[in-house]
Write the structure tokens for this entry.
Amino acid sequence: MKQALEKGAVRCYTFHMPTSHPRHSITETPALAAVLKPLRERMGEGTPSLSELVRKGAESTLLEIEAKDRANAIALETFVDRMREAPQPDLDEVHRIRHASRQP
């Protein structure tokens, strides 16, 4: 070690990773630790890995987005149906309201 220090900075040797998939680093912040602590206490050794929790979270988020998309599509469809089925507006009344609200 002394010889390495005398020659300058020690080189860092990195070997090839055993995967071709992207790798991610997760920092266990206080907020994340606060969520994981009760989970670990309840599940013990059976606690899912962080990668499994991320996968489940992504699946859950995708299901929420799809549910919102379906709700929006139904709302739009029912709105169009209600507009088609609604009686025609009284154009004379619309004209009176429009002109009554104008300031001279």
